[in-house]
């Protein structure tokens, strides 16, 4: 007996699809979709730089981000690191665990809240930071060298504006609430 076929969901009527100004159904061209393009660019840059320090120092992208955040001499909690690096708390926790095992960071109880562990870099991690920073900055200069100075300044301003808007939308995403209401 042949396996039962799943019924296909009914095709959405053209009226149900979002429309462009010309009355045609909207189409998402992924390669021109800004969030996708930014993600691909960020991943390409991160993985290219990661090859440099992973091979040489044996650290991962999350470990490098933690070293970079703590490299200025700050003492932060895991939650503060997750917030500043925009990494998932689980990812931060796993990286911290590996870094404690590798003697790259120190964990101390906070003065005011003993439940809050504060993290600092060890001299070993500071030495890595000192070596990686010039490499990272050289890569950034090489990457942004494709743009003239005025375009680099413009890009910096545009990224700051997009980040501010993304933060606003993340705090209260009105478009998502409207989309969900439209689906009901």
Task: Give me a quick take on this structure.
By secondary structure, this protein is mostly helical.
Count of DSSP-assigned helices:
7
Gap between N and C termini? 39 Å
Derived structural class: mainly alpha
Shape: globular
SSE order: HHHHEEHHH
Structural summary, described in words:
- With 184 residues, the chain is mainly alpha-helical.
- Helices cover 60% and strands 5% of the residues.
- The protein contains seven helices and two strands.
- The chain has a two-stranded antiparallel ribbon with strand order 1-2.
- The longest helix has 24 residues, at 34-57.
- The radius of gyration is 23 Å and the shape is globular.
- The mean pLDDT is 85.
Topology:
Elements: H1 34-57, H2 61-70, H3 78-85, H4 89-101, E1 105-109, E2 117-121, H5 123-144, H6 149-171, H7 174-183
Antiparallel strand pairs: 1-2
Key features of this structure:
184 residues; 7 helices; globular
């Amino acid at each position: 007996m042949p396996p039962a076929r799943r019924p296909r969901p009914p095709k959405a009527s053209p009226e149900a699809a979002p429309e462009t100004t010309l009355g045609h159904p909207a189409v998402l061209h992924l390669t021109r979709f800004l969030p996708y393009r930014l993600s691909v660019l960020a991943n390409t840059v991160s993985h290219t730089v990661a090859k440099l320090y992973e091979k040489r120092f044996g650290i991962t992208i999350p470990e490098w981000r933690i070293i970079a955040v703590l490299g200025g001499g700050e003492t932060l909690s895991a939650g503060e690191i997750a917030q500043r690096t925009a990494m998932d708390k689980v990812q931060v926790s796993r990286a911290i665990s590996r870094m404690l095992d590798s003697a790259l960071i120190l964990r101390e109880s906070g003065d005011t809240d003993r439940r809050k562990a504060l993290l600092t870099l060890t001299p070993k991690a500071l030495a890595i930071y000192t070596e990686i920073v010039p490499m990272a900055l050289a890569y950034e200069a090489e990457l942004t060298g494709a743009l003239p100075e005025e375009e680099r300044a413009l890009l910096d301003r545009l990224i700051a504006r997009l980040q501010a808007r993304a933060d606003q939308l993340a705090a209260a995403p009105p478009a998502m609430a409207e989309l969900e209401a439209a689906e009901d």
